Structure formats: structure tokens, C-alpha cells
Amino acid sequence: DGGITQSPKYLFRKEGQNVTLSCEQNLNHDAMYWYRQDPGQGLRLIYYSQIVNDFQKGDIAEGYSVSREKKESFPLTVTSAQKNPTAFYLCATRPTRGVYGYTFGSGTRLTVV
Amino acid sequence: AQSVTQPDIHITVSEGASLELRCNYSYGATPYLFWYVQSPGQGLQLLLKYFSGDTLVQGIKGFEAEFKRSQSSFNLRKPSVHWSDAAEYFCAVGALNRDDKIIFGKGTRLHILP
Q: Looking at beta carbons, which residues of chain A come within 8 Å of B8?
């Protein structure tokens, strides 16, 4: 089945640690997105990539980094500079042609301990 | 500024009753519009989308939405809700160009009374 795999589903981070969230897709979609979701705040865009080896900052990129070395993969690193990283993180993809909505992964819940 | 407003944070309806979730948007270009549903701890699933043509669009799970350009609205409806419809619903708007991003509303949480 084609889809998006986010791993791990749950992740715990100690203060001062960097952690990397994985997002892999086999939909052959060009564009990939990372969103952060907090209760009552909807979805906020962290980073997005329209093509391999290129990505742009979203609305809340501070404290995060990404890479896009392969079309299928768009990992998100939450660095120690992100002061409030506890949240639900969603990866999404979309073809860059035509009228399509996003396809979402099932999310990773990150908790700082 | 581009924005999506879902005025109701929470809505409670009885099982079997009809449902309407409101969505208003502000967008400079010709928009295309979406409704997504999210169950707790899960990703978002696309219910339906509108780009052009018939302003009443049908989606999955018995949902429909009506685009009203004069009111900048795209309200979601269902004639009879089921307990399994309890979830959070997001309205979203985007435009048809390569660099566009889809903008999401803050969501409406639907509660179903037995």
C-alpha cells in the first residue's frame, strides 16, 4: 500500500538533546511538509520541501532542522534550541501538479522528560 | 491576509441529529478548499475538496460541503451523525500554484451524545 510512515509513534527527549523524527513516503509525491500540532492551536508549518535538496522555512522553523536528500524521505530534527518541543508532529505530502490535498502520516508524539 | 476561521471550537450534537460545521476563509486568489477529519492520536484524513464546478461537493463518510463565494464560506454538513463521527474537523484553503501552502483553521471538536 502506498502511504506515509512516521516513526517512532512516541518519542521521549531529555532536556538538551537533539532528536530526529522520521518521515518516509512511497507515494512518489514531490512536496513534503512538517507540521506541529498543539491543543487549540491547529496545525503550524515548520518546514516544507518542494523538491529534493531544497527546503523552506515555515512559520515556526526556529529550533528545528530538516534535510531532503531523497524524494522519499524528509526527516525533522528537533534541536536543543527548541524550548518547548512537547507536541504532536505530523508529516504530509502532496503532488506538485493538480488539485490535491495533503496526505498525512499518523504522527509522532514527542514529550520532553 | 490569508486565513481560515472555524468559529466553533467545540460542538455537541446528539446521535442521529444533523450537523453543520462552519468555515470562513479570506484568500486573495481563487481558492480551493478542503475539509479534514482527525481522530485522537492520528493523522488527518481528507473528507472532501472543492476546486470548481458544482458548489455542493460530496465526500466520504456521508459528509458534504457547500461553497458560497459571496459569504466566503465552506460549511460542512451531515444529515445524521453517528457516534463514530466524534473527532476534530479542520477546514483548509489553498491556491493552485507551485509554491502555495495549504492554510488550516484551528479545528472544531465534535462531541456526540448517545
A: none
- Cα–Cα dist A103/A92, whole Å: 5
Residue A23 backbone dihedrals phi, psi, to 5 degrees: -140, 115
Task: Over range B26-54, report the average pLDDT.
Answer: 89
Q: What is the mean pLDDT of residues A21-28?
A: 96
Q: Which residues of B touch A103 (CB under 8 A)?
A: 46
Q: How confident is the model at residue B1 (pLDDT cuts 50, 70, 90)?
A: confident
> What are the DSSP E strand ranges found in chain B?
3-5, 10-14, 19-21, 24-26, 32-38, 44-50, 56-58, 64-68, 73-78, 87-94, 103-104, 108-113
Confidence category of residue B99, pLDDT binned at 50, 70, 90 = low
The pLDDT value recorded for residue B97 is: 60
Q: Which residue has the cell 463565494?
A: B69
Of residues B42, B96, B104, nearest to A106 (C-beta): B42
**Which of A44, A100, A103, A111 should be substituted to probe chain B, the one whose Cβ sees the most B Cβ atoms within 10 Å?**
A100
Amino acid at A39: P
CB contact under 8 A, A104 and B45: yes
Q: Which residues fall within 8 angstroms of residue B29, CB to CB, at 6 or more apart?
A: B95, B96, B97
Asked if pLDDT for residue B100 goes beyond 60, the answer is yes
Does A103 contact B104 at a Cβ distance shorter than 8 Å? no
CB B60 within 8 A of CB B47: yes
